[in-house]
What does this fold into?
Amino acid sequence: GQRVVAVSAGAQHSLAITADGVAWSWGGGGDGRLGHGDEQRQLLPKKVEALAGQRVVAVSAGAIHSLALTADGAVWSWGYGAGGQLGHGDWQNQLLPKKVEAFAGQRVVAVSAAANHNLAITADGAVWSWGYGYRGKLGHGGEQAQQQPRKVEALAGQRVVVVSAGGGHSLAVTANGDTFTWGDGSHGGLGHGEDL
It folds into this structure.
């Protein structure tokens, strides 16, 4: 009786959005990644009641955390936070969705969650990243973790329309079709003809 309009798979859990803007989750519940206020696994999809009253337009499941984007341009995160990937300025887990306040005044239009870092695009085409910074996957010129979203200044002047966060690297596509990659280049994952 539901019409599903989007899905995202993590390591052991899944997220979905139905046409009425409701987020659902199921699978492994460790560290609160399902957003139901506990760590129980769910064998069937269950509404994320903490987001009731919000119209969810996008979801992205990381390995052990989750992101949701609501129609007002806000980002919500929950689950495992020890890498800083929840964006709340601490290392704490969240058993329930919590708004990422660092985006106040910004309208986010896309999100992508990976194992322990995230990417987002704001309405002005800027890219933001946060979480664990290993091998430079955040794009800030170092490997330092970021506990809150930070603009990727190296992409200033580019209008980014798509982002995708991988386990150890990141990708962005601009409005004119250019692709930018950064982070762990082992196995050639960055596409620069190198295995670094």
Notes: The CA atoms of residues 33 and 73 lie 21 Å apart. The chain has a mean pLDDT of 97. The radius of gyration is 16 Å. The longest strand covers residues 4-9.
